[in-house]
Design a protein that fits this description.
Shape: globular
Number of strands: 3
Distance between the termini: 46 Å
Strand order of the largest sheet: 2-1-3
Structural class: alpha/beta
Strand content: 5-15%
Largest sheet: 3 strands, parallel
Length: 95
């Protein structure tokens, strides 16, 4: 079993949830691979598992020809999630 995990830089999961998923799949003996953008996922097989942000997963499913139900998230929850993601990103100063 191969598990593809979205990474920030190198071989480091992009967030804590991805890290926890990685640990669980490692315990199951899965082969762990990392990806940084959805185009790297073209090597994945339909039976592989993908751990990543919703947009990356949906894009990959589209490219593989799979359908999926629409997400029914209230707009308020989406805004909160995006704000949290923005807060977790490193700040770069323009000096």
């Amino acid at each position: 079993m191969r598990v593809w995990i979205q990474a920030h830089k190198g071989d480091r999961p992009d967030n804590k949830n991805f890290f926890e998923a990685m640990c669980g799949f490692e315990e199951l003996g899965a082969e762990i691979r990392f990806f940084h953008n959805p185009t790297e996922m073209r090597q994945a097989e339909p039976e592989d598992i993908l751990v990543g942000y919703v947009e990356a997963v949906q894009r990959h499913l589209d490219e593989m020809g799979f359908s999926y139900p629409d997400l029914d998230y209230p707009a308020e929850n989406v805004r909160k999630e995006l704000e949290q993601v923005g807060e977790s990103q490193p700040k770069v100063s323009a000096e």
